[in-house]
Amino acid sequence: MKSATHRRATGLVVAAAFAAAGLALGLGPASTRAAAADPAPVTLGLDWVPEPEFGGFYAAQLKDLYAKRGLAVQLRPGGPGVPTVQEVGLGRLEYGIAEATEVVLGRAAGLDIVGIFAVYQTSPRAIMARKEIGASSLADLFGKTASLAVEPGSVFAKYLQQRFGGGKISVVPMAGAMERFLTEKDFAMQAFATSEPILARHRGADPQVLMLSDVGFNPYMTVVITNGKRWRAAPKEVRSLVGAVRDGWKAYLADPAPANEAMHALNTAMDPQTFADSAKAQAPLVIGGEGPSGLGRMSLDRWKTVVAQLVELGLVEGTKVPKPEDCFVDALPME
Amino acid sequence: MKRFSLRAFGPPAALFVVTIGALEFALRELDLDPAHRMLLPLPSSVLQECWDARGELAMRTLMTGAAAFLGFAASVSIGISAAIALAALPWARRAFYPYMIFFQTVPIVALAPILVVLLGAGLKPVAASACIVSVFPVIANTLNGLLSTEPALLDLFRLYGASRSFTFLRLRLPAALPDIITGLRVAAGLAVIGAIVGDFVAGATHWTGGGLGLSMAEGLRLFKTARVYASVLLACLLGLAMFGLVNGVGWLLLRRWHASQTNM
């Protein structure tokens, strides 16, 4: 049986050993700790379910591109009606996805949100029409006797109404639109060039895709947004995120398969073939005129156009019209 | 008439004015940042929006009101007829009643797209939606009323040799009126809800059509929350109007003899 003195001594030695180990592991005073602390987690809230339009974000996650730039990014899938703009505007969500029109409308309503990276240089918004209608263009389509399924309250629908609204075409609700498209000969519907036409072709149809960008409506789409306060307080973090996102998109454009697989696991409603076809269809829309170096870049001229169009549609007016230069920032990393 | 006196309308109106006034004052004092201001617009902004967009909002209220009224009228006729059939045929009552309960619990948000596909666009699916949501209270209350006739009175009619149809028209149906009116009161408000939900899905048949549901959806999309609240306010007023209509009919039918009306 060990004596009390011996036990005390053993205790002191064990404590010293633990303290040494602790110091070695960095549990001592702050000055002895390594410089890189665990990064604060941030969330990037998507505005829809995981689909190829978000491929670059998932590719970045798979390749640890966020971590390599010192970020702990969590991707949060969205769905119909997810209020990413309001959440970012209220400071509840660090980063979100929105359309350029939503940024302008949000700013007009008092939310301090800014665009930092635009996935689509060319908007994928389109009208998918049956070839039997015989329309040669969007302008021509509106003069035909046909049904057009759109959400009348959406901004692009208002644009179409303003430009071509006097025509013979009749507006119908979106409910059951895809089924009607496949069965009726004089049917057209709103679509994303990367989505509905592919689904229609898989079901044996041969749709005509009329791009809205061809008739002057081309706001940036799938724009990463953040709160203006965050940009001013932590520009380095924002630039790091944008850098990671851009590298992620480069990786996704080169090889979409791994990210598609990851997204398919989260969105089983879309089959792998559609993921692949959609990723292929969207590539030219993502890469701008400058080629891959233009990835994500935004220009003041195009934001000016968005603001002007919304003013012309009567959706923002008077003192509330945001300045185009306030709507976005050039957050590409200084390389 | 005592019903329409200051005593009846004064207190609720005063409460409304005081509450809204307090809310306006509180929101102004709080000095919210623009983002939160967007979520909680001042009551005065909502009323301003009602005025600024009065033409469009009036048209939309009319559309939703028409659909709600048509749907309500349909649910009254279908509901009362169904209840009469179920009251007269016990085997039918046992067979169909559980399915009626089941049918009522299917969420209208899920049914509305199917209605559009079946009935086409425009007023029809919205009215159908209003009908589906409001029919069950009519059936349930009417059935209850028809089956709750006082046994002593039934015996009296039988003693005097009254036929089944005579008993039905002169005793069962009039005695069931208070319950029927109660069912209609519930159905009136539900019809407005059904019309608004149907509107979200059914959309419009032309660029500028649609009712208050579309107005709400558009307000949400354009971050114009004052428009959303204004649409909600008008929807509530519509519901109140339908409720008042039913109350008025109830008063007309029951004023001479029923305790609920004579004891006002």
> What structural class results from the helix and strand content of chain A?
alpha/beta
CATH class of the largest domain in chain A: Alpha Beta
Q: State the shape of chain A.
A: globular
What's the story with the biggest beta sheet of chain B?
none
Architecture of the largest domain in chain A, CATH level 2?
Answer: 3-Layer(aba) Sandwich
In the CATH scheme, the class of chain B would be: Mainly Alpha
Radius of gyration of chain B: 22 Å
Give a count of the beta strands of chain A, DSSP E runs of length 2 or more: 10
> By CATH's scheme, which homologous superfamily of the largest domain in chain A applies?
Periplasmic binding protein-like II
Instruction: Classify the fold: give the CATH topology of the largest domain in chain A.
Output: D-Maltodextrin-Binding Protein, domain 2
Greatest chain-chain interface? A-B, 30 and 30 residues
Q: pLDDT average of chain B, as an integer?
A: 87
Class inferred from helices and paired strands of chain B: mainly alpha
Strand content of chain B: under 5%
Strand order of the largest sheet of chain A: 2-1-3-10-4
**What is the overall silhouette of chain B?**
globular
Q: What is the averaged pLDDT score of chain A? A: 87
> Which series of helices and strands of chain A comes N to C?
HEHHEHEHEEHEHEHEHEEHHHHH
CATH architecture classification name of chain B:
Orthogonal Bundle
